[in-house]
Amino acid sequence: MSDPSGRFVTTQWNLVLTAGQQGAPEASDALAALCQAYWHPLYVYARRRGKSAEDASDLTQSFFATVIEKSFLESADPDRGRFRTFLLTLFQRFLGQEYRREQTQKHGGHLKKIAFNFDAAEQLCLQNSADVAPEVAFEKEWALTLLGHVMDRLAEDYQQRGKSELFQKCRPWLNGNVDGASEAKLAKELGMTEGALRVAIHRLRERFRELLRAEIAETIGPDTTVDEELAHLRQALIG
Amino acid sequence: MNTICPQCQQSIPANAPGGLCPHCLLRNSAQGPANGSLLNAAYAVTTPQGAVQATPAIAELVQLFPHLEIMDLIGHGGMGAVYKARQRKLDRMIAVKIIRPDATGDPAFAERFAREARTLARLSHPSIVGIHDFGEVDAKSEEKDPARRNTLYYFLMEYVDGANLRQLMHSGKISPELAVSMISQICDALQYAHGEGIVHRDIKPENILIDSRGRVKIADFGLAKLVTRSGDDWTLTGTHQVMGTPRYMAPEQMEGSRNVDQRADIYSLGVIFYEMLTGTIPAGHFDPPSRKSGVHPGLDEIVLRAMSSDPQRRYQSATELRVAVDQLDPAMLHRMPAQTPSQPSHTGLSTIIDREIAGTWRMMMGSEPTTAPSTVSPERTRPFLLLLILFAASAATASMPWIGGTPRAINAVRQFRGGDLASGTGAAAIMGLCAMIWIIVSASVRRNVIVTGVLAFLSCCSLLLTILSWQEIQPEFTTMQPLPGFHIAVILSATITALTAAAFRQNLVAWIKETQETDLSDFARVPSHVAETGHLPDICMTCGCQTHDRLRRTIEYQPKWAESMMILGFIMGGIPGLIIAVLTQKQTHVALPFCSKHKSHLSHLVKVASIGWLLPALTGGVGFLVGYLPTHKLPPLQPPAIAGLVLGIALGLIAYIVALIWLSLNRVKIEQKAEHEVLFSRVAPKFAKAVREMSVKA
């Protein structure tokens, strides 16, 4: 589920919304990047809609190929706040039209950029609960995918600064349970004072928060706030 | 299959990032950053073009400080905003603090500012954020009106790459070890600054920075002086908060007293220490840290002493505090499981006479007079006092002439020689047995009280008879030998009587507790440290009106073990009791809320109590003179003189007793002082209610 693409352009969805109408190339690139990041929830949605594993993977791939080639930018309505809802609506429409399509557009050149890992996705589908509505499953997977991206970016961030070990060891504290005893142990292990470790953990949390908010900001429009979307995602996770 | 998150009880999906519970991750991110945390301006505003616009302030600053590379806003508070910047020439990171006085501006501000800055620049300590430079710039604003032109005052300070204490506490409770190590470092810095004559005056977690190496650095030294002079200086742009509730401010500072010295910093540090250990700020009725969060009780003393509302009782210097903290046994600093709160021990109260005698003794010795004497509360009398009373009552009953039959009873005892003593003992035994059976059977405390009371009384009578019979029998014997088994008999009946009396007392206590439980309208129970620090409700204890005044008093009291010894001493003849009373008495200072009207109330009470012993002597002397003067004959004392003397003393005594009664009916009484609690009775109902509410909340 890792995102192979490089750094995101700031506020891609905004870019899509505003420049998409003019058919600017940056906008279509932005859209492509966004799609690449969030194929997994779509796969899950397709499966929940009753498609077989094979069909779902085919559908997902052809959907993205269509998006990238045909570039559904015109449909990107500025009034529609979020990329999430936009993507889902598009996909729903696609699924509805799919049966009419004979051509199984396989693996255009553009699709080589996207690393679909359908096997892993299938495994996860099986493990997670199977008795929720497709839309609910979609939103839940969306939230998890988003969190996964943030975590990856955070890991990358720390690795670039040469602090991978610190990241690995301190990661459990992202959840906010600060246990004094293990903190002291870890501090000794890392050769830091307890105070320094506290600061490091705090830094990690802050950075995570920043990256999370940034990631959310990428996918929302001007009339939604990050907090609103965050609240929605929290709700979505509960299912 | 899916694991359950221990914190939020939701199941963790298989593809949860890093195996962490996503619910918790999102929840923690939903909470906004704590005050003064990293605010990245990049996310503050996003335009539809997707470009990032810096907040106006940064853009403005970039113009005003061409030699600096302004990077980020890293915090803002009541005083100004702090930015991270880089000095180009020196290629080092610094912090720029902007203080923006109100547009109306205080012309003397510039001078004060410069003076303060120079003072602060003298501070050079590894745990104090150093000052590199200071100055003022004219903010080029669009304002046409020259009166509204803004002057920006700024400091260039050492940049601390870390977080402030508020943010760290936000992540969770700080371990005692860490807290102690930080306190130690802070004390070091404070001692240094105090030595330079500089008091911080605004120590709070936001001002305590910890760098990435874990070293503590104190910021904003002495700046409070700059801005408290004119209240306008506090506001920034009005969008962010101004000075918050001064919870870390020492009482003398809050009162606006001129005598604020380095001990005010120590108070603030004490509050912070408490907050680090427990995660909450001490307010009103608060528990000591050991009770609140299970740290070792050894820390309590340090925290509470640092937080005393009387500067005299605090640590007088930062070094003192640091030494106290450094001397703590490291074993104490490891978290201990929450201990069950120890029950407050009740000391027995002396009777009015004891208090009076002891109080008089103290007065004669020259120490401060006690507060109002208290009446005997049956709840807290000792068994043998009760026994004494019972004996006195039985003796009185036995010797009353109209009871009749009593001499005959004694004669009757004489008749049964062998069984005389047995009858008394037997009677007592039967009483005791009846009492025990009744208690087992009966559930009603009230009935128990009555029955055991009667039985105890009767056993006392029996015991007395036993003893008296010896008196009667004695002349019969020429050898003066007691009858066989006499001593055993006496001891037996005494024991039974004592047991019965104890049973009576217990039931009495329970009964009174029962009634008191429901009627607490003028009874207030306050933990000692709250009374000492004055964190009582702002309600006058006498009349119940709102007041922020505090009256400081000294209460004397006896520890539990000394109380019993003292009573024994009194029984043995008075003087030993007095000696014990004087030797073992302890003092405590309390700060009680009284309004200005009633501030002198307590001293009135004390005055009345203390003149008590003087009055009968005076009136006696006057009476004597009145009787003596007309006759001028001495000796022998003429009847008028004697009459005068006796009358005078009697009048004095009556007056005194009347005064005592008046005292006992008046508010307020300090009922008793135990090691951990003070009990006040006859307080204003509003006060009692507020105290109860505080203890419920805590």
Please, what is the average pLDDT of chain B? 69
Query: In percent, how much strand structure appears in the residues of chain B?
Result: 5-15%
Overall pLDDT confidence of chain A: 76
Secondary structure tally: strands of chain B? 15
Portion of residues in helices of chain A? 55-70%
- Provide the number of structural domains of chain A: 1
Count of DSSP-assigned helices of chain A? 11
Using the CA coordinates, give the radius of gyration of chain B: 37 Å
Overall 3D shape of chain B:
elongated
Q: CATH superfamily of the largest domain in chain B, called what? A: Transferase(Phosphotransferase) domain 1
How is the main sheet of chain B built? Answer: 5 strands, antiparallel
The fold-level CATH name of the largest domain in chain B is Transferase(Phosphotransferase), domain 1
Number of helices of chain B: 24
Query: Unreliable runs of chain A, pLDDT <50, ≥5 residues?
Result: 1-10, 102-111
Report the strand count of chain A. Answer: 0
Number of domains of chain B: 4
- The end-to-end span of chain A amounts to 21 Å
